[in-house]
Amino acid sequence: MRIRHPLTIGAGVAAVLALTTAALAEPDSGSGHPPRDSLRALAAKIGLRVGTAVIPFDLNNANYAQILGDQFSTVTPGNEMKWQVVEPTQGVLDFSGGDRLVAFAEAHRQRVRGHTVLWHNQLPTWLTSGVANGTISNDQLRDLVHQYITDEVTHFKGEIWQWDVANEFFANSFDSAPPLPDGISSGDFWVSHLGEGIIADAFRWAHAADPRALLFYNDFNIAGEDGTNAKSDAVYAWVKQQLADGVPIDGIGDEGHLDTQFGFPTQMTQDLQRYASLGLKVAITEADVRTFVRDTATQAPTNPLAAYAQAYEYSQMLKACLAVRQCISFTVWGFGDADSWIPGTFKGEGYADIYDVNLNPKPAYFNLQQDLTLAAFGAPNRTR
Ligand code: G3I
Fold this sequence. Notes:
The protein is α/β, with parallel strands linked by helices. The chain has helices at residues 11-24, 39-44, 62-71, 83-86, 96-107, 125-132, 138-155, 189-194, 197-209, 230-244, 268-276, 305-323, 342-345, 363-375, and strands at residues 49-54, 74-77, 111-118, 162-167, 214-219, 251-254, 257-259, 281-292, 327-332, 349-350. Strand 7 (257-259), helix 11 (268-276) and strand 8 form a beta-alpha-beta unit.
């Protein structure tokens, strides 16, 4: 799959093309024909892509694959492009999971969000233990990560629409005492060994390997979800400086992991717009909304009203994206509750996805569907 890039055309031609495309409808239907009321078909009318992380990596499950192909126009590997999975043995690269997903996406006319190149988590044991026991020096670590980024981004060159190049580098209000966090976490694995400049280098190396991929900085709580906006302020100041320094960053991904107990972050639209005002694309990259549940098997909310709150917060999150023309994709972090990462990480919580444990659509799904239907009547059209 090669990414097509927009041609430069005159405004008159663009208007005619836009009308023609609208009249033909279903611009992004896949090889099997996604339903006209699917999330992807509705979103395509305003040039938005709706995506999901592929969790579980269950492409052979017919029901799962049908929903994946019908409803979504982008896919993100939940784990298959992470260093731990790609290079479990030093020097032996395994891109088979990513290749399978790229092939699925091509067959279903989907785009791929590559995830994730530089992150402190899910690193190969040979790397982390080598650093810990001193057999890998910092200079060698720098060479290894340069090589890895070059190998991975080159392998998928032309296949990836957006790469999450750097992931979760900023400090959080919950892991430090006041004053509020105002920058990159000094304890991060990469920063502590190679300095903050490694982030900019990762973008430069990724850009050299695939100059046409959109390169994103991706993080959570960077659109006001922490209630203080401190992390958003820090990322905004950092990315502004990076752009001034000529670092090839194209976008900011806000993960969008919400929790009904904290309410919807009302700053989200303004924060997304603020990044966009720097000339960046923005995206919601890992949306889910968790709440307290009775048990992991059914994931029925303990408070029946939470089901409304969950659907409401999904809707608000999508609307924040819809309101910002530069918000080019809205991705959920998996779509079925049975395989969500939430119950394993947040004790007593679940019900975070838009399909239930039996892969039936939930109220949140229908909210998104309705929002996208209405968006065609006035949300700003986005391109690319
Ligand atoms: O593959 C092994 C399997 O062989 C083994 O039997 C099993 C036993 O636990 O573990 C499997 O690996 C797990 C892997 O997911 C694949 O399922 C790891 O233990 C588990 O830790 C890993 O969790 C992933 C998590 O990142 C790690 O932090 C989740 O699937 C993945 O959804 C999650 O995604 C992250 C994003 O990348 C970044 N933002 C936050 C998001 C949620 O944590």
